Structure formats: structure tokens, C-alpha cells
Amino acid sequence: MCDMRSRTISFTLNGRPVTAEVTPHQNIVEMLQTQFALFGARESCGQGLCGCCTVLIDGKPVSGCLTLAIFLDGMELITIEGLVASGRLDPIQQAFIDCGAFQCGYCTPGFVLMTKALLSQNSDPSDAEIRDWLSGNLCRCGAYPEILSAVKTAARAIKRAATG
Amino acid sequence: MTETNVPAKQVNRSIPRIEGRDKVTGRAEYAHVMQVPGMLHAKIFRSTVPHGRILRVDTTAARKVPGVCAVYTSEDVLRVIPNPYYGPAFHDQPILAIGKVHFVGEPVAVVLANDPHVAEQAVQEIVAEYEELPAVYYEVEAAENKVVVHDELKPAGTFADLKHLKGRKGTNIALDFGLRRGDVDQAFVSAAHVFEHTFRSQKVLHLALEPFASIADYNDGGVTIITSSQGPSFVRSEIARLLGWRENRVRIKVPYLGAGYGSKLYIKMEALAVALSMLAQRPVKVALTMEEQFYTITKHPCTLRIKSGIDKDGRIVARQCTVWWNGGAYADVGPRVTQKSGFTASGPYDIDNVAIDSYALYTNLTPAGALRGFGVPQLAWAYESHTDMIARALGRDPYEFRKQNLLRDGRQQATGTILKDAAIDKVLDRIAELLAWSSPFDRGTGTVRRGRGLAVAIKAVISPTTSVAIVNVAADGSTTLYCGTVDMGQGSDTAMTQIVGEILNVPAEAIRVVPRDTDVTPYDMGTLGSRSLFHMGHAVHLAAEDANAKIAALRRELGEPEGSNTPLPELFRKKYGMQAGNIIGTGTYRPDYIPAEAQGLTPNATPFWMIAGSGVELEVDTETGHVRITRLITVADVGRPINPKIVESQLSGAALMQLGFSLFEKMHVDGGQVTNASLADYKIPGIHDVPPVMQNETVEAHQNNGPFGAKGAGELGTFGVSPAIANAIDDAIGVRLTELPLTAEAVLRGLRAKDNRPLGDV
Amino acid sequence: MIPFELIEPSSLEAAIAQIDPEDPQVRPIAGGTALTLMMKGGVFRPRRLVSLRKLGPSFTQISAGPADELVIGAMAPLSALEYSAEVRRHAPVITQAMRRLANVRVRNVATIGGALAHADPHMDLPPILIALGASVDIAGPSNERSLAVEDLLTGYYETALANNELITRVLIPPQGAARAAYFKITAGSADDWPALGIAVVLSATGAQVTAARIVVGAATVKVARLRAAEKALIGTNADDKTLTDVAEAATSEVDIIADIRGSASYKRELLHVYVRRAVRAAIERNGAPRV
Touching check for B623 and chain C: CB below 8 Å? Predict the structure, then answer.
């Protein structure tokens, strides 16, 4: 008895229920790129160290390149493409633009999603907390100082919007 | 349409980068993740020996793996490209190894399949046998020519100064550049003090987060290559040359580039992708993994011996530099590094007698090429450490000693070129000011000691190079810019729109920049060496002015009174009867240049000088050697910045990248094998490595021959970091390190050696 | 990665039954981070993976046991430990160490059982667990047993587990008034695998140290308890002279291995320095400061 064939999984992708045929060895990034034409999550280091493949599963950031797609069954998956609600940028994305918190942009979706997860669980993180949280995301262009500013700017903007 | 709220100036404005939305939404496309219908995936089988004759490559088992479409070696490549050697300076690099392999990781064979996993699996089934040959890894040893990497040198003919090397055998020296000014031997004899030191820097690499990727789609009519490249024009001309085609049958498209830092230049995967597409008669994608980047292109490790003669008044009267550049198995752009940076090896100092010998060496390692700084960080590592050591040995303040000897405008640089618009003085002074250099500094008395250091450096922009730009004004007045400079995050697109906007008097944000596509974007030498803002900036400026001139001509043609401000769309309607037509302005820029003669001297070495320096404050844990940078200062002369915020991010980003090269990055090589070819074992700076205080500034300056007084900024932040740190370590604990990286272990070994309690060897 | 079979049993017994003890190409998969890396690197080519994700909530629970021991389900992700109030109450040294352990994404997925079964000698958690006196409950096809974590980790990526045995729980005895510290020393970038990890858990009455466990990670073939160092410390008041003796004992009793993060001589120096610093930090109740 051997089950190496594709299996159909059902999950929620950026708020929509979807299904996908995946083989056991496919990772989430491959599935997103080949089956859903979503390229914001990118495999770069391939070892879960750079964060370019970050996606949110049930709100928690994971490395898409190290997660077997088959484990998505029944879960909620959010990619960078899911952040733009009805065409409007998420305040975090706007903050990254305003602070110039990117250069080549390859790592940017990862940083934005990590920030989304952070601010969802901690609306007013300290500098130290932000650094610890983002220590697993690499930016070879070195935009870390601007990214730090963007996270703080986003936190303030979200707070302002919440208090009206 | 009229723009009523146009700010007075478009330049010197910190407008947000124009591509921001694409990047933060993940919509930006990069070659590494792009797909072309019907494409095959390529996986590469690589050499496991550093130097050897290929006895056989057995692909039988690989071909039998289900799902494999084809397996190719150089035998197949030769059928479609009879002379498959490429390179900017030497045509020495084969598309797939022919007869010999010259470094571990050299591509030997390729598997094509619809599924990249299948291709990878099949690569494991390929077997190769080599007759191993002796290998050489160290640059100084390579110069002795006892073990020779290549049987014969093959200069490309693109550079006149390499022609004399054609056909040479029995040597690893790909270029020897010499500069002689005055008489160093005589000056050393009469000097009051003579100092000589040797410095070494290590093999590191760019590690752009988007690894190399090229997708080639060949048919008899032409070939289209989507590729991650900083220089699409060169790719086009080189591929055309390899195929024996007119250039206009080759189309190079560059989507967003996930960084390059100099790695994605000349030919990387493009020629291989084309050959494979020709053989398979289908589009082929060659996309490397992060690990494979270690087998593609790196920085030049360097040994530099530097000797200075000082007179009794503390003036540097002579400086002799011997530089050995470790170019790896293929020359790539190494010979250019050797010469174009070589001639600044004596540093930003006013020295009457200078001798420089700069050698590009072949070794059996991954090829070395251009990496942000183009050799200047290695040179500055040596000369700014050396200059500091001299100052300390003479009991002089390192800042004052530099100030006494600094080059100033109006004086001759080592090549004999008179310095113009090079604010070295201002940069050095500002670094010292930010460090509060004249104030007492508490170095501490406990196990943690503190120190500070500074360094200042000079670079010449590579010359001569050409840039062409097109500005297209549509019938509604909207403007589109076509230029081949690749924006890889350094903000070139944004800066160019600001220049065009300034000339055409439209907001920069309203100008569209077309993605790079050699079918539409005209020639550019390449996005490298901090040349684009100046060269393409001029071309863009000229193109916008040409468009303006044509608009003015249109006004006159239509009989508009002098000084009329009839909106542009109305002019088009008047001329064509409807919203139709274009006004197209073009601009071409190539600076003046006088090539160096035999002694390496020339009165016009470069159209502009890059000047930058660093200041560092740090702490050293004397029990562990651990260094903590508490302040990192970068000061630069960029003329008048077109976009100050982008300039600042370039200074900062470059400094952080160089921090990694200074403190911990190193490719570990054992018997020619890279033993840390992954991000798990080759660490690059993360957010916790950012010093608590970073200050990035530009000095008040104006580049008189630059577009709106500006010049390049991309590399500046790299120059002074390494020596400033070593100088600060010396300041803190009296230990002088002469080899990079400056790891905690290296610092502790230095401390213990000084205390006569040396650490064990292993 | 080559195709393999994936099975997702919903009970421990079913999971164990699926693993053929003689077939190295059949392995259990927990969070999957370590295993996926090995598969991508071609180091491990599975025929079948037995997922442990659906064994049930008891395997992810973190709670206090009847004797106030800390009971952690083997499938609890590291992030659950990081945010657990029970863990913070019992062993705040774990909570503090989590800040710099791997990264957020790995912690969301990697499990404590998986980490221990992987037995990578560079990890942060094993030295801490050993210093806390932790043990594991193990289930096999026909029996259950317990092992001290110290005895579980037998060698370089080697454990005392049979191929078809699974860790079910990790137990940490009540710590009472014991004080703990963990130092992670990195040699490359600030965020890296440790070049050296030192965990210290000690008890003191007044100024006198009455009990101590000192454990080193990342510098030896497997995580090592420094018993001679412990002996040199117990019964003393940990003054400077004693700490030097403790450090000497520590560096003499283990075989330090060089790697790209440091030569053996250098790591020995680090051990010497950080044994002292970690003991001092534990005594002063500084917790687990990062370096």
C-alpha cells in the first residue's frame, strides 16, 4: 500500500475557500506559485532563515519553503496578496512605502507579513521586541533601520485608526 | 493637461520610490519566480574537483529517470554554439566545461525536465570521472606560476590594454597593471621613516536574496531571455556574438531585480539558458539555488603589501603598493578591478612618489567579479589600516596625520589627474566632528574596553562608458522614460524621473519608467560601479532637453507667440487634428577620457571621484574578543543629491553590508571545496547586527560636471568600514589585525599574542 | 525532493505501528522543519513519513502535574512554550531563551519532542532541559519508559530511541528555589546557531551553593554535563577563585570540537569565561541574559 499520488486538500486562501491537488513533497511556496499564480512568497535561502517565503497559517508566520503543502488541509492561509482589502493598502504596507523600508523588494512581503502578525498580537512593541521578532528575516540590501521605523509608524497608524 | 501643483524643484526632493506599491504588495515580478508557457526546468551537475581533466561524464542513468526530457554536456553545446566561451575581459569561460574543470562547482552537465524535482533527482544519477591536477588557491602563490590554471590566455579584444596577453601560456596573471609616479626607490632611501605592512582580505560573496535566474526562449527568428541582470545591453551583445547574430535578434528583458551588488553582470546563466533552449527547442529556465550562488561569482580576496616613506615633517613622500587579486577560475571583470581600482591603491593622499603593481590572478576557486566597491574596500582596508598604523607608530593623532597628507582639489592624484570636486577634507572633518574626535574618549579600565577609529577613501568611476536614454512625450502630455539602468533597489528609476521632471517641469511621480527590455530601452554600459546616476542621469537630462527643444520647435511651427504656454495636448491636437503623435527626445552621454599610458599615468583618469569615509566607536570584551559596534558613521561626497532619502538609504545599506564582510563573513574553502555554502553556515547581517547608533551624512558639495551637481552613491558606504573598525580595535586594546574578517576569535588571538599567552593553533 | 508516502494516523498506537524499526527510510515527522531541510539537502530520502500532527490535544498540552512538575506534550510547538504561563512559572529560563532560539517561524512549527528526537548538538533547548533535570516519557510498540534527557541524547544526532519509539511527554521537575541561567554565544552574526551554549541551574542556601547542574551545548559531540565543574562548585560560595577552579574543571573534562564557528582552543576560552559568567548570573538571579 503506497500513497504517493496527489491528494486534494481544502483550505482557506486569503479568505476564500479553495482546494488544491498536492503531492506529499510539495512545499507551500511551490503550491502557491504553480497552482494559484501567487508569487509574493519566494524561496530564497531554502532553509527557513531568510523569511522571503513567509506566509501566515492560522495567523502565525511560518516558512512556506519548509512547510509541506499537504499540512494546509483545514487551515487558513494568508499570503502577502491577501493584505490588500478591496484595493486599499494595509497600513503596514503604506508605512513601508512612506518610510522607504525596502530596496530590491525581494524580502519585503516577508517583513510585511511578519509585521502583520506582530502587531496583531502586540499593538505597541518596543524596539527590542520588534528586533527579536524580525531577527529571522534577512535583508541583504540592509534596509533594517527603515524597516524598524516602518513597524513603529504602522503601529502608531493602526492605533490612531482604532481610537478613531 | 496642466500640472498646477508642481513643486518648484523635482531634484533634491526625497520623494518616495515609485515602485513601492509593487514591492509591498508582492506584485513585483522577479525572473527567479517567473514562468513561461511550455518551459523546461534546468538543473546543473557540477564539478567536485578543483582542477582536473574530464575523463568521462556518464549520463545514461540520468536519462532514464522518468520525466527527464534531456541531459546535455559541452559536447551538445558545441553543436549549437561552436565557440561557447564568454566573458567581458577574456573569452575564457565555457558555457559547460570543455575538456577540463577549473573549480569545484563548475557546471559540467545539465538535466532538463518539466518538474524541477525530477531534474534534481536525475542530476544525482550523473557520474563523472576526472584526472585530478594540482590546484592553486592562494593569490600570491598563483603569481609564481608553478601550478597553472589555464593552458592559454584568451583576451576578448574588448579592452585594448589586454591585447598583449593573447595566446600567452604558462601564466596565471590575467593582467598586470603598473603605475609609476616619481621615484619611490629614491624617496625611500631619503625618507626619515619607512613602514611596510601586508594585509589580506577574504573570499565573500554578494548573496542577493534573488538567486541568479534566466529563462531563454529560442526560435530561429530570435531569442528572448528574461533574466536577472544588471546589464541587459551587454547580455544582448554577448549573446549575439556567441550566436553569430545581429543584435536585434536578441531580446533581453529584466523584470524587477532582486538585488545584484555587482554579481548579476556580464554573462551569468544567460548563455547556458540559450544553449539549452536551442538544444531542446523549448523555453528553458535556469534558476539557481542559494547554495549555487557560492559556485557562481564572488568578491576578490586580496593580498596587499604597502610600503610608505615618511619625511621628518610627517609627510608621506612615497608609497609602494603591490596588490594580488584572487580572480578565481575565470577572469570575469577581474582585470578591470585590477586596473580601474588598482590606480587608487595609494589612497586619498598627496604623495609625490607612487609605485603600484596590481595583478589579476587565476586560481582554482569560484570566479571573482564586481562586488559593491569594485576593489576599493580591499584597497582601503590596506591603506587606511596602514596609514593609521604609521600615525600611531609616529605618536601622531590619526586624524591630524591624515589631514596633513590628504589630497585636495587642484592637486594630482597618483595617476597625475588633477583632483576636482572631491570633498575629501570635508568628509574627513565631518567624521571627526561626529566622533567628537578632539574630545577625550574614555577607553575604560575593566574587561570591556572602548575604542574609536576612522578611515577615508577614494574611488574613480570606471571610464569611459556610454549611456543612452529616450524620453517619449505622448499626445496628452504624459511622459515615458526608456533607459537601460536597472533599478535593483538603489532608486535609479525614481532619481531619473526627478531629473526628467525637473527639465520638463512635470512632477516626477507622473513620469512612467518602462521596464528594461532591449527591444525598447536603448544602450547602457551597465548598472555598476556607482556610474548610473552620473552617466544615465546625463543621458536622461539630454533626452529631456531634446524633448523640450522639440516641443519648442513644435510651438514655433504652429505659430505660437514667443513665451506662450499653450498646454501641450492642445499643440498636438493643433498639429494632428486629434490626440495623436509623440515627441521623442534622445540623449547619449559618454564622458571624456584619456587612457593611461605605459606608466599608468593620465591627466583624465575619471569623470568623477567618489569620496567617502567611516567612523566607528566600539567595545571589546577582552575576555572573549567579542566586538560590539556602538556607533557607525558614514560620511560621503555625493555632490548635490537628487533624492537625499534614497542616498541616505544607500549609504546605510552599503555600510551594513560591509559590516558583515568586516566582522564575520567568509567563504571557508578546504581543498577547493566550499564548506559553508548556505545561509545556515555563511551568516549575513541581520537586524540584531545593526549598531545602536548609525549616522549617515553627505557633505555640502557640488559635482560641477554632474547632472544637477550630483554623482553616484551606491558603493560609498562600503569603503571605510573595515579599516575604521580595525583602527578602533587598535585604539581600544592595542591589537592590530591585518586580516579580514575581524572575528571575536581573531581579536582574542591578537590579545593573547600581545600578552604572550597565545591560543592553541587548532 | 523525491516523492514519498505520507501517513497521518490519529492515535499514538497507529503511528507507532506504521514505523518499521528496521527501515531507515521510514520516519516520524513532527513540525517538519529539521526533516524538510534534510530532505531538501538530499541527506534524507524517505519512503514514508508518519505525521504526528493528528495524535490529539493531549500531545500538545502544557500543564502542571500532580507533584507540580511541568508536563509538556511532545508535539507542543516551541512557541507554545514561549508564551505558556506554566512554563514561565516553572522555568522562566526557558521563556527567556526562546527569544533568541531559532526564529519566530521555526518556533511556530518545531516541536519540543521533535527537537529532542533530532538530537542536533547545536540546539539551545537540550542543555537547558538537562540542567533543569528534565526527563522524557517514551512510547514503543509494546511498552513505555522514561529517560532523563541527559540519557536520551547519546551522540551526534543520535538518541537512545528505537526507530519506532516516540517521545510522548517532556517532564521538568519542580524547581523550588533553584536559580537558572542560559548563555547563548554566537560567533558569526548576532543571530546564529550558538558557538557555545551554557546552561546553569543551581540551588543555594545563603551564600553556599548546595546543588548545581552545568551543561554545555554546541561545543562537543553531544550536549555534555560538566560534572567535574559541578563538583568544584557545590559546597562553595562561588567566589572568584572558586569560579576559576570551576572553569578549569569544565575545560578539562570535555573534548571540545572545532567547527566553522570557532577553533577548539577558542571555544575552550569561551567555555572558561562563560561557565563563570553563567554561574554568577544564576546566583545573582539575573535569569538568562543574552550575550
Answer: yes
Contact B688 C190 (CB under 8 A): yes
Domain A7-83 belongs to what topology? Ubiquitin-like (UB roll) (3.10.20)
Say whether residue B683 is in contact with chain C using an 8 A CB cutoff.
yes
Task: Read off the amino acid at residue B717.
Answer: G
| R_g of chain B computed on alpha carbons | 27
User: CB–CB of B762 and C263 under 8 A?
Assistant: yes
Closest Cβ–Cβ partner in B259, B655, B688 for A106: B259
Domain B34-135+206-293 has CATH 3.30.9.10: no
Q: Which member of B743, B760, B761 has the closest CB to residue C187?
A: B743
| Residue of chain A minimizing CA distance to C7 | A3
B668/C269 Cβ within 8 A: no
Give per-residue pLDDT as tens, C162-186.
999 999 999 999 999 999 999 999 9
Which CATH number applies to B298-462+597-754: 3.30.450.20, 3.90.350.10, 3.30.200.20, 3.30.365.10?
A: 3.30.365.10
Q: What is the CATH number of domain B20-29+465-589?
A: 3.30.365.10
Provide the phi-psi class of B389: left if phi over 0, else alpha when psi is between -120 and 50, else beta.
alpha
Interface with chain C: mutation pick from B41, B207, B623, highest number of C CBs within 10 Å: B623
Q: What ipTM was assigned to the predicted interfaces of this complex?
A: 0.97
pLDDT of residue B598: 83
pLDDT at residue C287 in the model: 42
Select from B254, B243, B223, B227 the least CA-distant residue to B86: B243
The domains of chain B are located at 20-29+465-589, 34-135+206-293, 298-462+597-754
Q: Do B652 and A145 touch (CB under 8 A)?
A: yes
Q: Nearest 5°: phi and psi at B719?
A: -55, -55
Q: How many CB atoms within 10 Å of residue B581?
A: 16
Q: B499-532: per-residue pLDDT in tens?
A: 999 999 999 999 999 999 999 999 999 999 999 9
- Residues in C closer than 8 angstroms to A68, CB to CB, are 6, 32, 36
Residues 48-107 of A with CB under 8 A from B: 49-50, 52, 79-81, 83-84, 89, 93, 96-98, 100, 102-107
Q: Which CATH class is domain A91-163?
A: mainly alpha
Whole-angstrom distance, CA of residue B458 vs CA of residue B324:
19
Which one, of B110, B416, B67, lies nearest residue B275 by Cα? Answer: B110
Contact B23 A105 (CB under 8 A): yes
Please list, in sequence order, all residues whose beta carbon lies within 8 angstroms of the beta carbon of residue B299, skipping any fewer than 6 positions away: B203, B204, B205, B206, B368, B371, B378, B661
| Rounded-to-integer distance, Cα B262 and Cα B651, Å | 16
Amino acid A152 reads: K
Alpha helices in B205-352 (DSSP H): 232-243, 270-280, 290-293, 334-336
Residue in B13, B18, B21, B25 to test binding to A, most A beta-carbons within 10 Å? B25
pLDDT at B73 > cutoff 80: yes
Check residue A4 and give its pLDDT. 60
Question: Using alpha carbons only, how large is chain C's radius of gyration in Å?
Answer: 19
Least confident range of C165-174, C203-212, C244-253 = C203-212
Residues with Cβ within 8 Å of residue B113, at least 6 apart in sequence: B40, B41, B43, B67, B68, B69, B119, B122
A105/B688 CB distance under 8 A: no
B199 sits in which H/E element: strand B193-201
**B298-462+597-754 and B34-135+206-293 share a CATH fold:** no
Closest in B24, B29, B289 to A112, CB measured: B24
